[in-house]
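I am still learning, so would you mind making up any protein sequence you like and the tokens describing how it folds?
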Amino acid sequence: MELVDCDGDRLQFFINKAGVIREYVNGKLSIERVTKLEYSKAAGTVRDDTGVFKLKPDDQIAKALGLRALAAQAGVAWCGDEPTPATEFVLTDTDGDKLEFSLTDMGKLQESNNGKVEIAEIQQLRFDLSAGTIEDDTGVFKLPASECIEKASVLRSLASEAGVKWCGDDPNISTLATPQAVLDIENCAADWEYQCPKRWESLSVTARPNERFCDSCKEIVYFCNTEEELAAHVDQRRCVAFDLRADPAPKDLTTETVAVQVVLLSGQELPIVHMLPSQTVAFLKVALTEVSGIPTEQQRLLLDEHELVDEQSVQAAGVTSDAILHLARVEPEPPTPAKPPRRVMGRKKRCFF
């Protein structure tokens, strides 16, 4: 999540693969490992490991609830006051609709859409953290990627105050799991179940000299320079290439790479992936599968709330080493059932010859 404090500084909080909160100030890493957050409700301040920052009065409750949820997910000590429960909340979803939630005089939770009451009394809210969506009694809306945890935690607070049933993921409980960093590739194992007819030189160059991409099987191929490397990759059922007499490092790989930083909607920060500017977003998704365990077809990459197109190059998509991408997981659409053959009923005209 991110916020702008009273001094005008932009603060961003992400959870990395190890479950550690890292804090950035104006785009630069400020705290490698946040160990505690201390909140003063009266002063509207939060003390971290290096100092104190002051929340803006107009969004103090929302930001405090968001930070509280992030600390709960990462197991960071929360000291001082608990945030004040929310009584009203306004957000703009990814479709541009302005949604307003407020407690009525009867203590019920009411929802308005673009100024018109849509649900007089909400009965249930369901949160899907991986997709960043909230389902209410009439449908589903998507939360902005950079505000997912914060917005969900405020809605969770409102639901608790109104006695609304909360289903799905809870933003105040850790749902982080260690991502699988192994590609489960069939036909590539010990005893050479499959021998690829392609040559190493024909594979697409990546940012890492010992890794290339196969455009046919859409997998990373790892070059092994020692018996130990070969055994390690084979044990993990990865596709490999090897020539124990050769140096696999390309001598002409001088293009500067882009250090791509990607964050899940939960706030979890994935390991940095290095890409060539000319490589496509589709190839970036392949690399992200290895560090997140999320299949490429279920990845939705967002930069400033705009979805990246697979066919674009990293450079054309505006991805730089200073940018932060958000990764949302979407379930694949079920296959469309085949239409039954059209049936014609009636009596066909007789033909006379």
